[in-house]
Amino acid sequence: MNPLPGWRAAFRIARRDAVRAKGRSALVVAMIALPVLGVTAADLAYRSAMPTKAKELTAELGAADARFSATSMGPVKLQQMPDGVNWGTPRGAPDPTPEEQEKPVDVTAAFPEGARYLTERTVPASVTTRHGIADTQITELSVADPMLRGRIELTDGAYPRARNEIAATEDFIESAGLSIGDRVTVRGPDRTYTLTGALEIPADLEADSLYAVPGSVIAPWQKTADRDKNILPPQASDPKWLVEAPPGAGVTWKDVLAANDRGVLVVSRQVVLDPPPDSEVPMAAMMGEPYDTEKALTAAALTVAAMAVLEIGLLAGPAFAVGARRSRRQLGLVGSCGGSRGQVRAVVLAGGAVLGGVGAVVGVGAGFGLTALFRPLIEEYAGSRFGELTVRPWEILGIALLGLVTGVLAALAPAIVAGRQSVLESLTGRRGTRRGSRVLPVVGVIALATGVAVAVYGGVNGDTTFVAGGSVLAELGVLGCIPVIVGFLGRLGRRLPLTPRIALRDAARNRGRTAPAVAAVMAAVAGSIAIATYTSSNAAEQAYDYTPNMTPGTAALMAADTGDHAELPRSRAAVEQNLPVSGGRADIGRVWAGSDCTVYYEEENGCGTLELVKPTGKGHSCPLKGKGGKELALRISADEHKRLMNSPACMDENYTMVAFGTDEHKIVIGGVDVLASYVKLADPAAAKAIAEGTPVLLNSAYAQGGEVTLKATHVYNPRDKKNRALHPGKARTTTDRLKVYVAPDRFAATPGIRMVMPERTAERLGLHVEENGSFYTLGREATDAENQAVQAALDQAGNRAYLMTSDEMLRENDDTDTILLILAIFAGVVTLGAAAITTGLSKADAEADLTTLSAVGAPPGVRRSLSGFQCLVVALTGVVLGTAAGLVPAVALRLTDLRAALADMREDPMESAYTPIVMPWETIGLLAVVVPVLAGLLAAGLTSSRLTLTRRAG
Asked: Which one, of 125, 133, 392, lies nearest residue 235 by Cα?
């Protein structure tokens, strides 16, 4: 028997039913199209933003065929790989002599015959801006040449063509406050150029640089430096040549080998895109197997992808339940006309296929449209232009097919339920009474426990496959428990007012409707919470590993010269007038013994030394350093390792920052103001101690019995006549025990300072002291304009000092908050959609109950409030369960990271093993409070309070 006619009728019925119930069909299509849209847009954005070889070559070469460059080895024979990244001399060849390395390489002689070329050189420079002075780089390159299209594009104005013209990137123009036609002066040679155009680097939208024609900056600068020895010469890069071969020729592998014989490296577009076989590459035998990055998928991506497939089915399932419930009478008529249960199921499944296909097409089309619409925003976020949308047809077809198949599978459960209903129940609208399955909750609990165990096992053993599989199994286990959880909610409404009590009991009585909607919310929230928890935890780990260069919120003005040449008063005025300084300044000095090593550094043993001696033993020596460190690392946990690494004994053993004019001793000369403004030590006892001449020690590991050992070698250089006269005689070494105030252990992490010493104490010990700078507390982060203004003011003050600022902004400038916000919005949208579905299904089921309420005198507003509480129940239950389910993969993945961190720590005991698990409380709060309340309010607001009384069936 041919089943096609039956299915043809089923599809005809499904199509007509979809057209007749436009609102319900639109809802079903939307719930299928939403995930398809997201996956399509993500695929297009990812593939378009992912750097391919062709895109990388365009970013590097523009429209040129190749880039030629010389090396520092001179005109000796070279070998290179086709990509031009790896190169060297032939195996067994002798190293070039210094004389050979100094010989120039005739690069142009290696060009293919008839080729055209451009030269490129880059030099760092300081230039004037509207606000002051900014550091940048200037590239000498004929950017107007068509050979550079694709690499550099003009967005406004005109390309520079004369030697007194210059162009800049949009980012530089914005930060410098310039506009087309302004004048820009290059500091040093003091040559002025006219800004003619704004440029964009498609591969780097945040590029901050200037472009001039070849020979207009570097050569004049060099001539000026040759005439005036006070001007530093330009530190220009070695030249590169962009080459365009004759039409149709290209730069072949044969051309590359010929250039290698002359000592020239080549990156050829033709060779990189179509590399020669290894047998033709002399260097191939020296290279190992390449690493396949396509296989290096992260565990987070695998886990989220597995949950995404589950999410589509859970979103679409309740939507088809709406259609099946509203089409009960129609399906009953099919049965009354002789249709079998299989044919009833076929009608529902055909509806899934029709609406699933439409949803897939709409989702793919909307994905393309939204990606094109928001392409500029995506490119700005990615930091580069796409060039063109990269479409992989098989991937897009697979996404659409996934939407279609998922639509059919989502309709499977409603089809089975519809096939089991009797004709009488379908025609009269009665649902009958069915007991919930007792097996499903048991299976769900077993699956939940097994899934958690498998995910944790995978995390502990570093197996991401087990993590992904266990996470999905645990989520399926929670799904199996949802009917029981929903039934339990009905018992909580006994003491609640009328509408929430009805909403809870209605949800419990109609578990077949409530459970899928709760599951859809749970799946969306679980994926978002999993990523949010992992992202927050990873951000906390990076914040812990971050080592600041200065105390956050501070700036330091340091003298660039010694002695009276520093002229600090003028430099201090420049800082105080241009930066957002809050409060007064704290002046500091530097201290040394013997002759100053910053002046007399040329002779061996021609200056003195100063050392803060660290005692040995427990509490002083870091147990992770030196002998026994690896053995200890094998025995301790990550928390114990963190405690040891944060102890004063280990604080600066792995990394120590030397700044503020100090040597390895990290002693600065200062007073109470230094403790308050930079150290942030607000302790009256410390202030009293330093006022009385007692040094303040910030690292307690250097103290023993409240004292420190200061060892000084007083060696004076014969040329140091001033200090030599004050300290005649032979060189001597002194060791002094100093009583100190020991600060709490947390101050051992103060960047750049180990001890603050009063000036009179240093002089009493026979040490030399000199004013060296000042600390400032900033009320906020300085803007680009303020930074440029202060650089200009320091330049006017004679450039006798330089400014150091905290790099806290670089650490805070990450995407964590943006990612968490996007995840919260995604989960919120899905939650609202699922809540809307269950509200629609509730209306289909509860018409008789609402009629009864109206008949007994219930106010019209009860209908609205009931819809609102029904939405609230679904949204809140799904969010709570989703949060619990999402923690499983997040914790398991962090256990995987912990395993790797412990392995690194045991290899190098000074490596951090801190792998925290941080809950994204803001995201959870937004999903658990704001979204359910919003869903309830929307449902109540969009529900009509009017009800037309009808005669009860039966």
From this structure: 125
CB 709 within 8 A of CB 603: no
- Name the token pair of 525: 């929230």
Q: How far apart are CA 299 and CA 314, in angstroms?
A: 23
438-486 confidence digits (pLDDT tens): 677 788 888 888 888 888 888 788 777 787 778 778 877 887 787 888 8
Tokens in use for 462?
């570093």
In tens, the pLDDT along 59-117 reads: 889 999 999 998 888 888 888 888 888 888 888 788 888 887 888 888 898 899 889 99
Under 8 Å between Cβ of 913 and 898? yes
Assess contact for 187 and 128: CB atoms under 8 A.
yes
Cβ atoms 486, 508 nearer than 8 A: yes
* 711 and 734 Cβ atoms separated by less than 8 Å: yes
H or E element in which residue 559 lies: strand 554-559
Instruction: Report DSSP letters for 905-926, one per residue.
Output: HHHSTTS---------HHHHHI
The angle that helices 341-373 and 328-336 make with each other, rounded to 10 degrees, is 140
Could you give the dihedral angle defined by the CA atoms of residues 613, 618, 624 and 627, in that order, rounded to the nearest 10 degrees?
A: 80
* CA–CA separation, 210 and 183 (whole Å): 13
516, 468 contact by CB (below 8 A): no
Beta bridge partners of 165: 194
Task: Give yes or no for residue 131 having a pLDDT over 70.
Answer: yes
| Spatial distance between the Cα atoms of 307 and 471, rounded to a whole number of angstroms | 8
The pairing of beta strand 116-128 with beta strand 240-244 = antiparallel
User: What string of H, E and C letters represents the secondary structure of 741-761?
Assistant: EECCHHHHHCCCCCEEECHHH
Spatial distance between the Cα atoms of 515 and 483, rounded to a whole number of angstroms: 6
What gap in Å lies between CA 401 and CA 344, rounded to an integer?
24
- Cβ-contact 232, 60 below 8 angstroms: no
Longest dimension (CA), the chain: 122
Nearest of 883, 880, 852 to residue 866 by alpha carbon: 852
Segments in 546-655 forming alpha helices (H): 568-578, 629-635, 638-645, 648-651
Nearest-angstrom CA–CA distance, 782 and 533: 32
Cα(280)–Cα(257) distance, integer angstroms: 10
Sign of CA dihedral 308, 309, 310, 311: positive
CA gap 72, 83 in Å, rounded: 19
Angle (deg, nearest 10), helices 861-907 and 847-855: 130
Which residues face 737 on adjacent strands? 709
Residue 4 has pLDDT above 50, yes or no: no
Which token pair is 606? 């021609």
704 secondary structure, DSSP code: B
DSSP 438: S
pTM here is 0.73
First to last CA, the chain: 40
Q: Distance from CA of residue 264 to its chain's centroid?
A: 38
- DSSP string covering 266-283: EEEHHHHHSPPPGGG-TT
DSSP 8-state symbol, 563: G
Average predicted confidence (pLDDT) for the chain: 80
- As to burial, measured by CB atoms within 10 angstroms (0-12 exposed, 13-18 middle, 19+ buried), residue 327 is buried
Residue 719 dihedral angles phi and psi, to the nearest 5°: -80, -10
Structure tokens at 562: 């010694």
CB atoms closer than 10 angstroms to residue 919: 15
DSSP label of 619: T
CB of 533 closer than 8 Å to CB of 306 = no
CA–CA dist 678, 551 (Å, integer): 6
The full DSSP string for 884-906 is HHHHHHHHHHHHHHHHHHHHHHH
Return phi, psi of residue 839, to 5°: -65, -45
Query: Are the C-beta atoms of residues 507 and 486 closer than 8 Å to each other?
Result: yes
Beta strands in 163-227 (DSSP E): 165-169, 183-186, 191-200, 209-212
